[in-house]
């Protein structure tokens, strides 16, 4: 079923739960991996993914359809991920480079992260990026999202997103070449 059909079913109180369950099944893995690329840790990503769908459930009646459903859902997921990382930094008074190191250590020891040394080095390079650049890079590179959809997700202009992706790519290239 299309998102539009599922949202139509959601508007009917008798089919609301079933429609939402189908939306969750349709997007749960995509949301999980989007969050996971930001927070790295499986348990944290799992918790945040649940929180995303709880927020979506509570707010879905107010969804006006001005954007696509998945961009609306991704916006909730990105906001939750960035809020989580900011809270973690504040809670432990941890400088940003220490968070990067902690996430890098988790990445290197995570059995769910597969790949060779090059893939691991790429993931570590991505962790060096500021949160918003990391988000833009992940959405463009891994999710293959258009700049227009990214603009809906992030609330940022297409021009700023292109610049952010360019700077992120350059930083990653420098890191991979050992010139950062």
UniProtKB/TrEMBL annotation:
> Which UniProt keywords are listed?
DNA-binding, Sigma factor, Transcription, Transcription regulation
Record's Pfam families? Sigma70_r2, Sigma70_r4_2
Q: Which residues form the RNA polymerase sigma-70 region domain?
A: 23-91
Q: Does the keyword Acyltransferase apply?
A: no
GO molecular function terms noted in the UniProt entry? DNA binding; sigma factor activity
Xref: Gene3D superfamilies:
1.10.1740.10, Winged helix-like DNA-binding domain superfamily/Winged helix DNA-binding domain
Quote the CDD domains the UniProt record gives.
Sigma70_r4
Q: Which BP terms from GO are recorded?
A: DNA-templated transcription initiation
**Keyword Transferase in record:** no
Spell out the InterPro entries in the cross-references. RNA_pol_sigma-70-like, RNA_pol_sigma-70_dom, RNA_pol_sigma70_ECF_CS, RNA_pol_sigma70_r2, RNA_pol_sigma70_r4_t2, RNA_pol_sigma_r2, RNA_pol_sigma_r3/r4-like, WH-like_DNA-bd_sf
User: What protein does this entry describe?
Assistant: RNA polymerase sigma factor
Record the organism: Rhabdobacter roseus
């Amino acid at each position: 079923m299309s998102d539009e059909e599922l949202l139509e079913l959601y508007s009917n109180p008798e089919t609301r739960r079933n429609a939402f369950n189908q939306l969750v099944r349709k997007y749960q893995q995509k949301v999980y991996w989007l969050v996971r690329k930001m927070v790295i840790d499986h348990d944290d990503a799992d918790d945040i993914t649940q929180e995303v769908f709880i927020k979506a459930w509570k707010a879905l009646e107010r969804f006006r359809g001005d954007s696509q459903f998945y961009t609306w859902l991704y916006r909730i997921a990105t906001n939750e991920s960035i809020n989580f990382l900011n809270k973690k930094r504040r809670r432990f008074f941890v400088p940003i480079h220490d968070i990067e190191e902690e996430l890098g250590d988790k990445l290197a020891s995570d059995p769910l992260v597969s790949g060779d040394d090059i893939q691991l080095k790429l993931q570590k390079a991505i962790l060096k990026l500021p949160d918003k650049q990391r988000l833009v890079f992940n959405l463009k590179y891994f999710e293959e999202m258009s700049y227009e959809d990214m603009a809906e997700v992030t609330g940022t202009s297409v021009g700023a997103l292109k610049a952010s992706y360019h700077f992120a790519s350059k930083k990653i290239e420098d890191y991979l070449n050992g010139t950062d």
